[in-house]
Write a structure and sequence with these properties.
Blueprint (H helix, E strand, L loop, with lengths): L1 H11 L11 H7 L2 E8 L2 E6 L3 E7 L12 E7 L2 E7 H4 L13 E8 L2 E7 L1 E8 L19 E7 L2 E6 L1 H4 L6 H12 L7 H8 L17 H29 L8 H15 L8 H8 L13 H10 L7 E7 L5 H13 L4 E8 L2 H6 L7 H4 L7 E3 L5 E3 L1 H5 L1 E5 L11 E6 L8 H14 E9 L11 E6 L2 E6 L1
Parallel strand pairs: 2-10, 5-7, 11-12, 11-16, 12-15, 16-17
Antiparallel strand pairs: 1-2, 1-8, 3-6, 4-5, 6-7, 9-10, 13-14, 17-19, 18-19
Helix pairs in contact: 5-7, 6-7, 10-11
Length: 476
């Protein structure tokens, strides 16, 4: 164990030295967790050493327009272009003024496949502790949101606030934690909400009724059918709860028509075992739900379909809200369609997501050569390294922002809301709040486009219109 710990330290933080002490040999014998310590506004913080690739000093970062205020720009790290974020600004900590020539203290971090740099006040050293000495977080321990704190630990007579980098950058919770939640919720009767129960009650039934509404089947057959319906309803309840826990997908009136239809086909696919046992099962169940080309570049055919769905608009500026923009492929594809559809207008897209890495990297997105050669070609430019990216006009039309759409959103009145599939990933309270926000922000002649398997309820005050195989909503 000692050899593995020392090797990990030498590989990832080769410029940081450990604190020497008189009891070093004794301490090493029990160390099973190492962290890189640093300070923010005079307080001691730490990050798991396994998330730290190296430390550095750098300045004069390359500015990137239309990024969040805590994104300082990009930096060339031995040939790799990485985004630089100021951790102080992210946590709303006051940053002292400095000249452009001042070198900043950088922690080069890795989360999954992403690499980025964060600026801190001062980098201290590597500290080794016993993992079982890490205590749960408390709001009084820091000036930051408690959800970003993994715990607190005392070492060398100093109290360190251990940051949870995975949560800060919106990584998924561990499978173990999700499984614990699933077991707790599925097998607790109170966890099955009334709305899911109502949806399950409307699941497809096998009994046939006459025109008078009376069942003509024999009593024994009727009992058998009733038992089958009860079983199907219960199975649908479990599926709804599993989707919520595995993929944060909330079954509600907004998508219940699709869920019921999918449940029928799922029964045929899976035979007697309809339960979702893991994330793979949840993904298989939801695979037909997602709108075309989610998370990928649009084809010309799909771009043409969206073009036809957009109404005439002679406004000098077209304002668009795109919550759940992901890594940016959807937003850039939409921007190109809008420039084609409204050539005389200035396009302004507010693209938002709760994944900090996605919105930070989206302005730097490169386009594969085969994609750039297609219908995107008029909006492409080639970088010095040979990669393709979008023209400055397209980039300037998009504002990528870190924002949760369920919270208050200071936007101008909007011509187009493009929110495919995002509503189903909110709980029902959040769905209602965002749909109400649609009604408040959309112009009288505005258009709302949501997921292809979602439907706005009539109470929302919108009228559905269909063009080909696609639908949009306008104000009543």
């Amino acid at each position: 164990m000692e050899t593995e710990i020392m090797a990990a330290e030498n590989q990832q933080v080769n410029t940081v030295t450990e604190d020497d002490s008189q009891n070093k040999k004794e301490a090493i014998a029990v160390i099973d967790f190492k962290m890189v310590t640093f300070s923010l506004s005079g307080k001691d913080y730490a990050i798991d050493i396994m998330n730290v690739k190296e430390i550095a000093k750098a300045g004069r970062f390359t500015y990137v327009p239309n990024t969040l205020q805590f994104v300082l720009g990009v930096y060339n790290l031995r040939g790799d272009i990485i985004p630089i974020l100021d951790l102080r600004l992210f946590f709303n900590i006051e940053v002292p003024e400095h000249t452009d020539n001042k070198l900043e203290n950088l922690l080069i971090l890795s989360v999954g496949e992403q690499t980025f740099g964060v600026v801190v006040d001062k980098i201290d050293k590597v500290v080794g502790v016993q993992k079982n000495r890490i205590q749960p977080p408390h709001p009084l321990f820091g000036d930051i949101n408690i959800k970003y704190i993994a715990g607190v630990v005392e070492a060398n007579k100093r109290l360190y606030i251990l940051l949870d980098i995975a949560k800060i950058f919106n990584s998924r919770v561990s499978d173990e934690e999700k499984n614990r939640k699933l077991v707790k919720q599925v097998f607790t009767q109170d966890s099955i909400s009334s709305d899911v129960s109502q949806i399950a009650a409307r699941a497809p039934v096998q009994a046939e009724e006459t025109g008078t509404g009376k069942n003509t089947a024999e009593p024994a057959a009727a009992e058998k059918t009733s038992a089958g319906n009860d079983k199907s309803a219960q199975e649908l309840k479990f599926i709804a709860e599993s989707l919520k826990n595995y993929r944060k997908f909330s079954v509600s009136p907004l998508n219940e028509s699709w869920v019921n239809s999918r449940f029928t086909s799922w029964q045929k696919e899976r035979g007697g075992n309809t339960q979702l046992q893991n994330e793979t099962d949840a993904d298989d169940f939801l695979k037909p739900f997602w709108s075309p080309y989610s998370g990928t570049w649009w084809t010309k055919e799909y771009a043409d379909d969206i073009y036809k769905l957009l109404p005439d608009n002679t406004a000098k500026q077209i304002s668009v809200w795109n919550p759940g923009c992901g890594k940016g492929q959807e937003t850039y594809s939409l921007a190109c369609v809008l420039h084609n559809r409204y050539p005389g207008s200035k396009i302004r897209i507010y693209a938002q997501d709760i994944d900090l890495l996605n919105v930070s990297n989206a302005p730097l997105l490169s386009v594969p050569a085969e994609t750039a050669a297609g219908w995107f070609a008029p909006f492409m430019t080639k970088k010095a390294n040979g990669e393709y990216t979008f023209t400055q006009e397209i980039k300037d039309s998009i504002m990528f922002e870190y924002h949760d759409c369920v919270n208050t959103n200071a936007l101008p009145v909007i011509d187009l809301i493009f929110a495919r599939d995002i509503l189903s990933l909110l709980d029902e309270k959040g769905q209602n709040a965002v749909v109400n926000d649609f009604g408040e922000k959309i112009k009288g002649n505005g258009t709302v486009i949501i997921g292809e398997n979602e439907a706005l309820p009539p109470s929302a005050g919108f009228i559905e219109k269909t063009v080909g195989a696609h639908k949009a909503y306008s104000r009543k």
